[in-house]
Amino acid sequence: MEVKDSFGAWVTRQRKALDLTREQLARRIGCSVPGLRKIENDERRPSRQMAELLADCLQIPLDQRPTFLRVARGQLHAGRLPATGYVPGVGDRDRPPVCPGRPLH
């Protein structure tokens, strides 16, 4: 696995795959843009609450949430995360809605 495979790099790729700017994602998870930048640059780990909001906004399937949260908190390697680039579509009943209760803009 390459060095670029980190939680922060994964978050960045998934954010871009979902066509979200850093500003949009930061607003949806209740974080400052500099705070999100630090998470994406692996300078800081998200709190458990913020990791849960990231899971919602980055559309992590419900069955993969526990792994995502453990990776986000530094308990597992980022190689355990699902592939990035998911685009919502038909038949995704096990995926939660995008950022429930959060503004989309």
What this model shows, in words?
With 105 residues, this protein is mainly α. The chain has a domain at 7-78: Orthogonal Bundle (434 Repressor (Amino-terminal Domain)), CATH 1.10.260.40. The chain contains 5 helices and no strands. The protein has helices at residues 7-17, 22-29, 33-40, 48-57, 65-72. Helix 2 crosses helix 3 and helix 4 packs across helix 5. It starts with 6 loop residues before the first helix and ends in a 33-residue tail after the last helix.
Topology readout:
Blueprint (H helix, E strand, L loop, with lengths): L6 H11 L4 H8 L3 H8 L7 H10 L7 H8 L33
Helix pairs in contact: 2-3, 4-5
Quick structural summary:
This protein has 105 residues and is mainly alpha-helical. The protein is 43% helix and 0% strand.
